[in-house]
Amino acid sequence: MRTCFFGAMWPARMIGRGDWSALLWNADTVIAQFIIPSYLIADGSPEFHRELTTRPRFLSPERTRTVRALQGSMFDAFAGIEHGAPDVERLKPFHRRMLEMTFEAFREACGVTGVEYPADSEAAFRSYFTRELGLWRRS
Fold first, then answer.
1. What is the DSSP letter of 74?
2. What is the DSSP secondary structure assignment for residue 118, as one 8-state letter?
3. Are 86 and 20 in contact (CB under 8 A)?
4. What is the C-alpha to C-alpha distance for residues 38 and 101, in angstroms, rounded to an integer?
5. Integer CA distances (angstroms), 107 to 13, 67, 111, in order
6. Residue 7: its pLDDT value, please?
7. Most exposed residue of 31, 67, 95, 126, measured as fewest CB within 10 angstroms of its CB?
8. How confident is the model at residue 139 (pLDDT cuts 50, 70, 90)?
9. Pairwise CA distance, residues 101 & 133, whole Å
């Protein structure tokens, strides 16, 4: 969770700098480095330790559809990057969804392995993103 939090802090920084390609890379990294192996752990796959590019092929068909749907929403959220910048307001719902999926995947993996879920860390995540990006503020 701490490693993911460090990486997940970058959207606020990259949006502030307009560093769109790095922000896209970071989002894809969160999916590959945290969500996919957590799904594999939750599903009892011994392949969770594999390298980033190999892990997805060990996902169940349902998990594969879930990851691909998130990746599709990632590409939609970054529409306009080829013209200089995506719409920041379109990025927020994607990042909120990605982080919700990360929390859910971590909770599942912890539940299966008997590791205590770091709820305090999740609360710190949510606080940070509410403050920096308004991700969980009510409209």
1. H
2. -
3. yes
4. 10
5. 27, 17, 6
6. 59
7. 126
8. very low
9. 18
